[in-house]
Every structure is written in structure tokens, then in C-alpha cells.
Amino acid sequence: MNATSTAHHIQDLNALSGLKVLELGQLIAGPFAAKTLADFGAEVIKIEPPSSGDALRKWRMLMEGTSVWWQVQSRNKRSLALDLRTPEGQDLVRQLATEADVLIENFRPGALEDWGLSPEVLMASNPRLIVLRISGYGQTGPYRNRPGFGVIGEAMGGLRHLTAEPGRVPVRVGVSIGDTLSALHGVIGILIALQHRHATGNGQVIDVALYEAVFNCMESLLPEYSAFGAVREPAGSALPGIAPTNAYLCKDGGYALIAGNGDSIFRRLMTLLGRDDLANDPTLADNAGRVARVSELDEVVGAWTAERTVEEVLLALETVSVPAGRIYTVADIAADPHYQARGMLQKIIMDDGTALSVPGIVPKLTTTPGTHRRHAPKLGQDTDQVLKELGLTPSQIQALKDRGIVESAS
């Protein structure tokens, strides 16, 4: 395959090839949204502050001075180190925005306006521009000016109250789930806005609040309160109102997650456990009846798992088609053949020759599955090239560097 056909093949794998994205945000929510678009071919120019760059570069565990998280969050992007606080930097962003399809930002509400980069200003020069704004509380409302990180959105959205054992302090989910949910809602909004632009030629603003993205995933929480005055409370490893489904302790000290809550699934589970009396009990034929006796059913299942290892439990349940699984650590994930078969454990080779495993691309598309085209950039790695594409001469670029407005990778 020659170079031209190779380039065409790569483009065929990327449904968003040709989509130009400006990423102005930092850390998690905005950059995760841009990363998702980049995975499927979008050209993402990530604007970072000179000298320091995105703070995520230094978060958690570092390799050669840079977070390995950075290799996931910023793959397939280009880095333009530019000071947004300067008039010259702001003018460069306005120029870049005239050629962009999407601009993504997750600053506090009003920051773009303070810099002369409001959606109204940018869209006056480019009516086709789509602007994704992610913030803690949204661009409007009495809380709009409050600082808000993902953990705050998770709490206000109703999730934190539920993540606990009854009577114990609520705990946070072990990852930044509020930021990620916001990013994914932002990507959905961008794709909807692109479809609208295809029909009308006009862009629009997408306003995503962290707490609303979490709240949108809270299932029946609000209507149950509205209809019955019910305040859903923490239930540990169980799922309130659905039975039996829980984490059950096994003989080897591990836990098996068993979801025996479908009507026919419950009958198969009880038959396997040697409890035909429960399998054929008409009062347990539907979920409502099982919920009324959930403690009894959990004891029955728990007594059975306590006599077996996790592996023995899972093998037995697989034979009767009862959904079950183990609790995975990352070591389990890295060794799992299904993860491997699905391409979810991608190995990349860093510039120094070190191998690094990173998550594969999600979702899976049959024709345009996306690609890992380039590693996450060094700070300012693409500054010169991006500014040249914008029409600046080498002397103009150097003058900006001399004044600290832009920076190139050393």
C-alpha cells in the first residue's frame, strides 16, 4: 500500500476527518470531549498556557516528567502554547475560530467574555461555529458563578448520596465520573449541533453543567420522589427495588456480583441453588414479590456462594445463563482475554522506546472505528506549524515568542 492509499485508508477509518476543533479547556471535562472527537478523526488544536501547560500534564503518576494520564487524554491532538490573557493571544484565537467547526471550553462562566472571546463575538465572524461550554452549574442560574469541579457536580446531581453503605459516610466514585459524564453529554450535543448545521448552515452554543450531566443519569430518582415522596437512600452493593442483585461473599474472600432479578433468570438461579420451592413460589414470580422478600433471598444466595470460590460460582452461573461477574482490579483488566480481543488494551511505544498500555477507542464502529494516529503532544509541539497555517511569517512567530505570548516545544 503506497503513501497515498495509506492516507486514504486512515481517513476512511475516521468519520470526523476534516472537522476542526479548538480546545480551550484544561484538566478533564473539556479535554475528554475533545479527545473523543479526536479519536474519530477530528483535528484538535489544544491551546495551553505557555510554561505550565495543561495541569493534567503533572497529575498523578509521571513518566519522564509527564503524567501517563496525559497520553490518554491528549492523544491525536496538536498543542499550541498560547497565553489567552494577552490581547495578542486572544486575537490569534479569534483568527483560529474563523476556520474552526467546534470550540470547546470549560472555564468558569464569563471567562471567554472577559477575554473578548464570547460565542457572540466568535460566531459573528463564523456563524457555522459550534461552541461547547462545560461548567459546574451552567451558564445561567443563581449558581453560575460558583466554582464547580466534578466531585461537586456528582454531589449536587444526587449520585454522592447513594454511593455508601447505609448509615456510613457517602464515598466518591474512584474516578472523575462527573467530568466524564459532562464530556460525553457535550459530545452528544456537538453531534446534534453538527446535524442541525448540516440542515441550516448555522452553529449554536451547547451549555453543559456538571451537575445536570450527573442528574440526567439518575434514573427514577425524581419521579419516585414526586409521586411517592420517596427519598432514595444508600444501599451499599444492592440495587434498591430490584431483587435479587448484590455482591455476595465467596469462600475465598472475593465477591461475586449476581443479577438474578429477571423473572426467568430468578427461577434458573433458584433451581441451580436447589431451591425449587422458591423457584416455583408464585409470590416470587415477579420483581415486586421478590423485593418484599429481598433479605431472605440475599441470605439464600449468600449461603450458597459462601461455600464456593468466586471462580466456582461464576462457572456454575454461566451454565444456567445467570448474569454474574467478579470485581476487577486494573491487574485483572490487563490480563483479561476479552479486553484483549476487543482491542481495549492498546500498546503504544513512547519516544524513548518505552511501551505503555492505554485504553482502546470507544464506541466500536464497524466502518469508521477511529484510530490512534499520534501520541499526546509535548507542550507547544505544534505552535509553529499552527501559526504558519494561520498565515504568520517566521519573524512574526518569533516576535510572539520573544514576548512570551506563544511558546514552542524545546
Structure notes:
This protein is of the alpha/beta class and about 400 residues long. It has 2 domains: about 5-215 and about 345-405, Rossmann fold (3-Layer(aba) Sandwich), CATH 3.40.50; about 245-325, formyl-coa transferase, domain 3, CATH 3.30.1540.10. Helix content is about 40%, strand content about 15%. It contains 20 helices and 14 strands. The strands form 4 sheets. It has a 7-stranded mixed beta sheet with strand order 8-7-6-1-2-5-14, sandwiched between helices. Strand 9 (about 245-250) and strand 10 form a beta hairpin. Helix 2 packs across helix 9 (about 175-200) and helix 7 crosses helix 9. The longest helix is centred in the middle third of the chain and has 24 residues, at about 175-200. The chain starts with a helix and ends with a strand. The mean pLDDT is about 95.
Q: How many domains, as an integer? A: 2
Given the helix and strand composition, which structural class is it? Answer: alpha/beta
* Average pLDDT number: 94
Tell me the total number of β-strands.
14
Largest sheet: 7 strands, mixed
CATH superfamily of the largest domain: Crotonobetainyl-coa:carnitine coa-transferase, domain 1
Q: Can you give the helix content as a percent range?
A: 40-55%
